[in-house]
UniProtKB/TrEMBL annotation:
<keyword id="KW-1133">Transmembrane helix</keyword>
<dbReference type="GO" id="GO:0042981">
    <property type="term" value="P:regulation of apoptotic process"/>
</dbReference>
<feature type="domain" description="CARD">
    <location>
        <begin position="38"/>
        <end position="96"/>
    </location>
</feature>
<dbReference type="InterPro" id="IPR042146">
    <property type="entry name" value="CARD_BinCARD"/>
</dbReference>
<keyword id="KW-0812">Transmembrane</keyword>
<keyword id="KW-1015">Disulfide bond</keyword>
<dbReference type="InterPro" id="IPR043574">
    <property type="entry name" value="CARD19"/>
</dbReference>
<dbReference type="GO" id="GO:0031966">
    <property type="term" value="C:mitochondrial membrane"/>
</dbReference>
<keyword id="KW-0256">Endoplasmic reticulum</keyword>
<dbReference type="InterPro" id="IPR011029">
    <property type="entry name" value="DEATH-like_dom_sf"/>
</dbReference>
<dbReference type="GO" id="GO:0005789">
    <property type="term" value="C:endoplasmic reticulum membrane"/>
</dbReference>
<keyword id="KW-0472">Membrane</keyword>
<dbReference type="Pfam" id="PF00619">
    <property type="entry name" value="CARD"/>
</dbReference>
<comment type="subunit">
    <text>Associates with BCL10 by CARD-CARD interaction.</text>
</comment>
<keyword id="KW-0496">Mitochondrion</keyword>
<dbReference type="InterPro" id="IPR001315">
    <property type="entry name" value="CARD"/>
</dbReference>
<protein>
    <recommendedName>
        <fullName>Caspase recruitment domain-containing protein 19</fullName>
    </recommendedName>
</protein>
Length: 179
C-alpha cells in the first residue's frame, strides 16, 4: 500500500481532537521544511504553522497538500510523525493493518512457543534416555572391550540414573562380562 493511500486512511484518525497538539504539528512542519529533499517550502511551512487558523484546519490542509505532492512527501510525513510522536505513530490504523498477520502465513513466534512448550524437564528426560541408549548400545557392541570402564561409570552415577535403572544396567554388564 502506498504512503498516500495510508495517509488517506489515517487522515480521520490524525485530525480527530486531541491526537496531535500544536507543538507536535509545528515540529512536524519544521522537519518537513528542513529535511533534504525539502518537502515544504518556507511559504508552505508558514501557512501550515499559522496560529490564526485552527489546528484541525491546518493539519487537514497539510495532509491534503502532502497527498497531492506524492508518495515521497507522504513517506517523509510518516517519518516526521514517528520521530516526534512515536506513540501516535504506533497507534495509526494503517500500522495496525500492516501488523495484522496473513491468516495463511505461519506465525513464527507462536510456532517457536509451540515447539518449546514442554520445558527443561522434558528436554533433560529425553536427553537422559538418548544418552542411556547410546551408552547401552556402545557397551553391548561385541567389538568393544570397555565393560569394566562402563561398569565403573555406572557404579558412580546414582545421581544421573535412578538406582533401579543403574542396578539393571549393572546386572546386564555382569552377564555380558561372564559371556
Amino acid at each position: 500500500q502506498s504512503y498516500c493511500h495510508r495517509l488517506q486512511h489515517d487522515m480521520y484518525f490524525l485530525t480527530s481532537t486531541s491526537r496531535l497538539n500544536e507543538q507536535v504539528v509545528d515540529k512536524i512542519v519544521l522537519q518537513l521544511n528542513r529535511v533534504y529533499p525539502q518537502i515544504l517550502t518556507n511559504e508552505e511551512a508558514e501557512k501550515f504553522r499559522n496560529p490564526k487558523a485552527s489546528l484541525h484546519t491546518r493539519l487537514s490542509d497539510l495532509l491534503k497538500h502532502l497527498q497531492k505532492k506524492g508518495d515521497r512527501h507522504c513517506q517523509e510525513f510518516y517519518r516526521a510523525l514517528q520521530i516526534n510522536a512515536e506513540e501516535l505513530f504506533n497507534d495509526l490504523p494503517s500500522r495496525k493493518i500492516l501488523k495484522t498477520p496473513d491468516p495463511t502465513e505461519i506465525d513464527t513466534d507462536k510456532e517457536q512457543y509451540m515447539l518449546n512448550d514442554r520445558g527443561p524437564v522434558f528436554f533433560l528426560a529425553c536427553f537422559s534416555v538418548a544418552a542411556g541408549l547410546a551408552l547401552f548400545w556402545y557397551c553391548c557392541n561385541s567389538e568393544t572391550q570397555v565393560i569394566g570402564r562402563a561398569r565403573r561409570i555406572l557404579g558412580f552415577s546414582p545421581i544421573i540414573i535412578g538406582r533401579h535403572v543403574r542396578n539393571i544396567c549393572m546386572l546386564y554388564l555382569e552377564d555380558m562380562s561372564r559371556n
